[in-house]
Amino acid sequence: xxxxxxxxxxxxxxYKEIQAPEISILLGARQVGKTTLLKQIKxxxxxxxxxxxxxxxESSADLARLSGNDQDIVxxxxxxxxxxxxxxxxxxxxASKLFKEIYDANNKVKIYASGSxxxxxxxxxxxxxxxxxxxxxxxxxxxxxxxxxxxxxLNEYLKWGGMxxxxxxxxxxxxxxxxxxxxxxxxxxxxxxxxKEENIRAFNSMLYYLAQNQGSLTVYANIARDVGLAESxxxxxxxxxxxxxxCYIISSYSNNLANELKKSKKNYLFDIGIRNTLxxxxxxxxxxxxxxxxxxxxxxLYLILLITPHREIKFWRTKKDVEVDxxxxxxRQPVPIEVKSNLNSTxxxxxxxxxxxxxxxxxxxxxxxxxxxxKIQFLDTEIYFLPFExxxxxxxxxxxxx
Length: 402
Prior knowledge:
This protein has helices spanning 11-16, 34-47, 60-65, 70-79, 95-104, 118-128, 143-146, 154-160, 172-191, 200-212, 220-227, 231-243, 272-279, 291-304, 350-358, 393-397; strands at residues 23-27, 52-56, 83-87, 110-115, 133-137, 247-252, 265-269, 311-317, 323-330, 333-340, 364-369, 374-378, 381-387. By secondary structure, the protein is of the alpha/beta class. The strands form 2 sheets. It has an 8-stranded mixed β-sheet with strand order 7-6-8-9-10-11-13-12, sandwiched between helices. A 5-stranded parallel β-sheet has the order 2-3-4-1-5, sandwiched between helices. The longest helix has 20 residues, at 172-191.
């Protein structure tokens, strides 16, 4: 099979940073494509005339090259090239201190560094790199990127997700094996190093619980009862999953109305294929009882890519269980987004109407669904019905808020 090369949407942004003095940090879960991006930067930089050096710190030989006292390591890095790429940089002892020294010395070397062990990385970054690095989150393939692969159809994306390694797997058995390996590696390497051995099985049970109940309100007490752990332990495990990039925690939206839930949270796994692996269910969406959850996760994974310093994602629910799946807040202005897997008309969902009545300054809202495409005015709000395949239109329509 001829290797398929997919250019990531984030590549141009990352490569432009080659002129910036800050350390460029790539973060994300295991096997989302950080190493591939570093190697693509390496190839492009070499072609553009830079002297390039690549260190893979999961290689004992490369790790040995960057060992010894700090002065020797700094000398090795700064003398190795104009552009230095360091994969899994958290294995580098005193990484933030070394990067700070290189940056503060106004050395002309450009450093790109990647990692997935977030608990270690955050400790490195907060110690001494404040103001000296640029952080970029790397995610699995978006639906837009996935359309450039051989598995381009929406139903394929809802079955296998967006892990880049799937591009090179032809059979269903090969794809399932890859996803199973990613889950097992996460548990055997990241999680085993962070929790007690006797709690690994309980952690596995919690992962399954999250997959099974994805998109529902997360009640730690209920999970603790089901998996046999203390509520505080469950809260810690969710934080670990968030810090290792496999779980997104979404908080509730509230303007302090009396009938709103204030501190509730929902949790989503970072990839649809990983969730399907945990559930051991790779049927087509239309044959599954959790079809709605699949589509809801699909929409969330798109919205996450829109996050910038002036945007955040929430959900909305009242004490009477009136809800809107997602609230995208841009410049403090709420954009309600409802997801409907089955919709036969452009009738505005009741939850969306309730939100707009509660927040009459809402300018725009969305109903993402399988078939309907239209624009309807409700009070002073424009409601756009968009099919899942046209979800990319949301970003352009948000310009109304600028």
